[in-house]
Amino acid sequence: MPPDTPEKMPAPPPPLDGELGFDEVTRKGRADDFGHIVHHMPEGVVLLPGSADDVAKTIQLAAPRGGRFAPQGQRYSTFGRSQVPGGIVADMSALRSIGPVEGDRVVVEAGVTWSDVLRATLAQGKTPPVLTDYLELSVGGTLIVGGVGGTTSAFGVQSDNVIDMEVVTGEGKKVTCSASDNAGLFNAVRAGRGQVGVITKATLKLVAAPESVRRFLLVYPDLATTLRDERQLSADNRFD
Question: What CATH number should be reported for the domain whose range is 19-93?
Answer without folding.
Answer: 3.30.43.10
